[in-house]
Amino acid sequence: MEDKLSTASKDVLVHIVKLAQKAGMKGEHGDWKEFLKFFDKKFGSSMSDPSKRTADDLRAFVLSFKEKEDINYFARLMKSHTNREKVKQLLKGQDTESPEQRLVHLTLEHPHYSLSYSFPSHEEEWFVTKFGKKAKGKTSNTLLAVDCEMVLCEDGTEALVKICMVDRDLQIKLHEFVNPGKPVADYRTHITGVSAKDLEGVTFSIKDIQKSMRKLLSRGEILVGHSLSNDLKAMKVDHAIVIDTSFIFKYGDESTRRRPSLNDLCKTVLGYELRKKGASHNCVDDACAAMKLVLAKIENGNDDVIPVAQPDVPEVEKAKLLVHRIPNDLASEELKQVICGDFTIEIQASKNGKGKNYSAFAIFENPQEALNAYENLQGEENKDSYGRPQKLVSVQLKSGLTSAIYVRKMTLDNSPSQVSAKRSSQTETSGGELKRLKTDHSEEVLEGSSCVDHELEIKRLKKLVEERDEEISRQQNILTALTRKQGL
What we know:
Elements: H1 2-7, H2 10-23, H3 32-39, H4 55-63, H5 68-93, H6 99-109, H7 113-116, E1 127-128, E2 143-153, E3 158-167, E4 172-177, E5 184-186, H8 189-192, H9 206-216, E6 222-225, H10 228-235, E7 237-238, E8 242-244, H11 262-270, H12 283-300, H13 315-318, E9 320-327, E10 344-348, E11 357-363, H14 367-376, E12 380-383, E13 389-396, E14 402-408, H15 416-424, E15 426-428, E16 434-436, H16 440-446, H17 453-483
Parallel strand pairs: 1-7, 2-6, 6-8
Antiparallel strand pairs: 2-3, 2-5, 3-4, 9-11, 9-14, 10-11, 12-13, 13-14, 15-16
Helix pairs in contact: 2-4, 2-17, 11-12, 14-15
C-alpha cells in the first residue's frame, strides 16, 4: 500500500483521512487527533483539518494502520478515488480529445456527478474495476451500454434481478436474470417486467456479474447508461470511465433542475417512443437506447437545448391550479381572497403526515378560467423542478403577519392550449402594447402589495437556504454511508 500512497494525490489523501475520522478509526498511535499529537510535537492537533496538513502528514497517518482489515479498507478507497483522478488527469492532458472522451468529460463535469457517483465502494461486497495498463496514455474509445432492473426486498432495500449489456453495434454482450439473494416484497412487474416465475431456479448472482464486468471492462472501456449511477449501485461496481446520457444533453433552461427521462430523449433526439405509457421496462431496449443516444451525440454533436417534454395533461387537469406551501393557519376558504375567479377547493393529503404547510387544488370550470386567474396573480414567477410555471404570492394571515404561498400551473408554458388561452386573456392597448386584464376584486387583493415586496424577497432567500441545507444533508448522508465499515 505504501507504493500506492506515494502516488496518491493530496485530494485523495484528504478524502481518505476524513473518512477515517468519520468512522473513528484508530491506528498504532490512535485516531487522527491522537496521531497528530504524537507525530507533530510542535503543533499537535491544533491544526487538525486534513486539508491544511501536508500530503506527507496524511500518508504517515494512513501508514500507522497495521491491521490487515484496515489496510484493505484504505486500499479499496484509494483504488476508487485514484481511478477517478487518473481519468480526469488523462482527459485534461490530451492535446486532442475523441468524441467519446468528450462525453466522458461532460459527464464528469456535470454539477450532479459528485453526488450521484459517490459510492460506498470501500465495502467488501463492492468491486472496483482496474484502470488498466492499456489506458496508461489514453482512455479507450470502446463503448458498452448497460441497463438493470431492480425489485423491492422485504428488508426495505432494492436488489438487482435483471441486467443487459450491449456493444456499439447493439450486439448483446450480457443478458441475465439475477438471483436477488433475499426475500422480495414487490417485484414491480408493471415496471420491471419481471415476476417471481422468471426467477425460479436462477443462480446467477451479483458476484457473477462482477466477474463478467472484470472481463468486459478490463481495458478501460467506457460504460454507458441512463442515470448510470443507479445501475452501478445495483451491481455494486465502481467504474470510473462513464458516459451518463442524463448528463450529456442540455435540458430545459437553468431554472429547471430536472434531468431528462430516457423516453423523452428518445422522442426528441432519436425520433421514436421508447415505450408506451404504462408499459413495463425492457432492459435490452433501454441499454440499446442509451447507446443510440451516445452515437447520435457523437455523430451530430447536438448541443442544442432539449426542450422539457410536455406531459400529456387531460383537459380536466388543465382547469386546476396547484396551491402549495400553504401555512396551516391559513384556512382553505381564505384562498378565495387571494386567487380571483370562481373555483372549488380540494385539499391534498400530506405525504409526510402532519406538517407546517398543506397543499390544495383550485378547480375552475375550464382551462381558460384557470389561466386567467394565474395571470392575474401578482408575485415573483419561477419554475418547479419539472419546468412548470409558478408564482410566489403574498398573503395576509389573521395574526397580522404576512406569509407567501406558491400557485402553480398544471402544464408547461407554450403548449398550444396555454398560448391561445394566454392571448385571449390579454387586450391590445392603443399604443400596441399588451395589457393584462384585471378585475376589481384582484385590485383589492393587491392593494398595498408594495409594502411586502421586501418580505417576499426574504421568503425567497429563506427558500434558497432551505434547499441548500437539504442538499448538504443529502451529501452528509452519502458520506455517512461511505464511511460505514463492518465492526466499527
